[in-house]
Specification:
The protein is α/β, with parallel strands linked by helices and about 290 residues long. The chain is built from nine helices and 15 strands. Helix 9 links the parallel strand 12 and strand 13.
């Protein structure tokens, strides 16, 4: 179970939420259609917004999404309608506390065909009110990345202009590097530096490169998909908070690239290819928890 604190890329949802006009909301309602929605990131976004909205009140917001597989659960819904329903539910829960100390917790309980979102409102230790929303689980779309598959002599290149993400990947790879010293992790914040480094490698050396690149780079004349298309490496992953952007998804699918939402950096499984003398190594997926600070 994690307390909700906001990271820089979570904050953008708060800013957009504050400045949406009624007209814009009506337009969204008219044109939005049902689509596969990644529940874990949507729940985190909603709680992040609520943490900011009720800042200063004695209310804690937490989530418990269960095991790693739950983080990659999809349901077929209108995302704006679901967010609005959850937002209203949480608003009512906070109002019910009447400015008394309390905790709002969102749980995710995934069955073989159903998904239950459980909202628990706790005002006194040992006492809680629970509300359950039930949905039919749908198949995960082919753009989502649920693992990073590496070789032990790979060079992993992390390209992102957000220092927070570099710290998140460092925390994930730190225990791995102790076990696999031949693995290298290189960090770049500018696309040109990363491109120049990769282009300096021989064809053979490029086979050992695994690129983890952001999509949006501020004040840089290229995005992550442009970098991917330019480099033509065999192993690349788009790591972005724009995973719910339909255009980004379509372009990534066209390039044969999977997308990892930034919020799931702490959850994705990192696996290593089986060699002749040992077994596949799968790193623990709970080495690092993203904490989001207001």
């Amino acid at each position: 179970m994690y307390n909700i604190k906001l990271s820089p890329y979570h904050g953008i949802f708060n800013i957009l939420n504050q400045y949406k006009s009624d007209q814009a909301i009506f337009i969204v309602r008219d044109i939005e259609k049902k689509q596969p929605v990644l529940l874990s990131t949507l729940l985190m976004q909603v709680l992040s917004e609520k943490s900011s909205q009720f800042k200063g009140q004695p209310v804690n917001f937490e989530y418990d999404l269960g095991n790693n597989k739950n983080y990659y659960t999809f349901i077929n819904v209108e995302p704006t309608s679901l967010k609005r329903s959850l937002s209203n539910l949480i608003n009512n829960a906070v109002d019910a506390l009447k400015k008394q100390p309390g905790t709002v917790i969102l749980y995710l309980n995934c069955k073989s065909t159903e998904v239950h979102i459980i909202a628990s409102i706790e005002s006194t230790i040992g006492k809680a009110t629970k509300m359950i929303l039930t949905f039919v689980k749908c198949e995960a779309p082919n753009w989502i990345a649920n693992k990073v598959h590496l070789n032990k002599n790979d060079t992993v290149i992390v390209l992102d202009d957000d220092s927070f993400i570099h710290g998140a990947w460092d925390a994930r790879f730190k225990p791995i590097l102790k076990q696999i010293p031949n693995l290298q992790v290189k960090h770049y914040t500018t696309s040109i530096d990363a491109i120049n480094y990769i282009n300096s490698l021989s064809t053979n050396e490029k086979q050992s490169v695994f690129l983890l690149t952001d999509y949006e780079f501020l004040k840089q004349n290229i995005n992550g998909l442009g970098i991917i298309e330019h480099l033509q490496l065999k192993r690349m992953l788009l790591v972005t908070s724009h995973h719910d952007n339909h255009k980004v998804r379509i372009l990534a699918i066209g390039l044969g690239i999977k997308i990892l939402p930034k919020m799931l950096v702490a959850e994705i499984s990192i696996e290593f290819t089986k060699s002749s003398d040992d077994a596949v190594i799968i790193t623990p997926v709970k080495e690092y928890v993203l904490h989001f600070q207001v």
